User: Which sequence fits this backbone?
């Protein structure tokens, strides 16, 4: 009997993709993207998104207002 790819991942890498990490419920595959062009577009988009988040400068720091401290 052949085993599913999810069962193979569990057996070889101990990754259980059939269980939701958030709630512990059962996960089911609702779509599968197999077109290499579409996969490349998605990966390029995710890389750009990750790069833009790497440089997220914080606003310039400043001292708190002095009003009310000694008054």
Assistant:
């Amino acid at each position: 009997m052949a085993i599913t790819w999810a069962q193979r991942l569990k057996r070889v890498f101990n990754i259980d993709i059939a269980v939701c990490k958030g709630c512990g419920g059962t996960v089911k595959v609702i779509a599968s993207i197999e077109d290499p062009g579409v996969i490349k577009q998605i990966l390029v988009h995710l890389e750009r998104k990750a790069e833009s988040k790497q440089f997220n400068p914080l606003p310039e720091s400043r001292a708190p207002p002095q009003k009310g401290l000694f008054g």
